[in-house]
Amino acid sequence: MAPRTIHRVLMTTDTMGGVWTYALELSEALGAYGVQVMLASMGEPLDKCQWDAVRKIPNLEIFESGFKLEWMQDPWADVDLAGDWLLELEALTAPDIVHLNGYSHAVLPWQSPKLVVGHSSVYAWFEAVKGSEPPAAWKTYHSRISAGLSAADLVTAPTFTELASLRRHYGSFRTAGPIYNGRKSSLFPPRPKESFILTVGRLWDEAKNIPALEAIAADLPWPVYGAGENCHPEGGRRRPRGIHYLGKLTPAEVAHWFSRAAVYVLPARYEPFGLSALEAGLAGCALVLSGIPSLREIWGDAATYVAPGCPEALRKAVEELIYDHERRSLMAERAKDRALRFTPPRMAESYLKTYALMQHRKTATKEWGKRLLARNRPSFSGSFI
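Below the sequence we write its predicted structure tokens.
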């Protein structure tokens, strides 16, 4: 039996990082195919900028909450309450597909096929940043994430690297392969480049490895600018040192800085995809990235790579681009060409194929179950007394 057309998708998101940007980009791209997206947000309440972005997407309906996220401290009471809320939303919105940008809610008794997208994980973060497993307090997280992955109809992630990491840390699950993220190139028009270096991201996150850039900033002939949130959502503030801190900028402001920067640096120890690098590439920046497998998978020969634990190598790589204009122009051109492969329509098409596969499998399973029940149903002769 052929699957029904996908009309409605219930999608979860958090409001505190790249998953939010990804969810809006995907939702808008799905709109071109006539898909209505009901977006259930968790984490922090939407700010004015986020509400403005939501209102510009006609096929998107937002359902806002403030439930804690899986990676936060002691989140499980909130996670369970969020599960009840999400099931209510499914009953209210009648989606064809449930698209979960988290893990543990996949175990819920959904009526619709459920896709889990693995954007990151605590165990992979600890492996890359600390070189160890998380403390024992994270065992509940591990069991809940493993159960969610196992319960999903299909699992995807933005790179082969991240899919392999999820399998290594949490066990087996069903997957149709990775689906790469996409961004609209029109949001990042290149402008005449200026002599400075830029980095963008959650500056409080050790995985971003901002200290590696701070350690060399004073020795570089160009100034270094950094933008992003420096306050941890559960308390604490990281004060950038040695770089010009721009604060947390709006998406339009970030795009403006990308358009001006000649070199973009992402020295991350853990980066499942690297959305900021994609945005920098679209804006025509030459890229200096840490040589971790996920970033190499995305960028191939379109970036300069350095070991994340070697500030001296980072300094040499950045200085080479500063002093060699021809190479800087070449690498910026390569980054732009590579970035243009990661488009929202291509991302949306891949998700629609995955949704259809899940729907077809569920329909086939139901039909098989009906036939099996009919074949095994007992027959009676005579009459009941």
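DSSP finds 13 helices and twelve strands in the chain.
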